Amino acid sequence: MSNQAVRSEITGTVCHVLVAEGDVVSEDQALLMVESMKMEIPVIAPRAGRVTKVHFNVGDSIGEGDEAVSLDA
């Protein structure tokens, strides 16, 4: 298995964390939601795997390109 960084595509505020460390996720599953300009944008798993680290909590600011979640895929 290889570790993969799942990065945010936008700058905003984390409004929902939908997974926890140890969760098994499927390809295209939403991992967390980022609020930007009154819109909620999902951070999506690029492939199936197990969550090894969630780097942000609800209310945290996140930047474009920040590693949001680490997956063992």
From TrEMBL:
<protein>
    <submittedName>
        <fullName>Acetyl-CoA carboxylase biotin carboxyl carrier protein subunit</fullName>
    </submittedName>
</protein>
<dbReference type="InterPro" id="IPR011053">
    <property type="entry name" value="Single_hybrid_motif"/>
</dbReference>
<dbReference type="Pfam" id="PF00364">
    <property type="entry name" value="Biotin_lipoyl"/>
</dbReference>
<dbReference type="InterPro" id="IPR000089">
    <property type="entry name" value="Biotin_lipoyl"/>
</dbReference>
<dbReference type="InterPro" id="IPR050709">
    <property type="entry name" value="Biotin_Carboxyl_Carrier/Decarb"/>
</dbReference>
<keyword id="KW-0092">Biotin</keyword>
<feature type="domain" description="Lipoyl-binding">
    <location>
        <begin position="1"/>
        <end position="72"/>
    </location>
</feature>
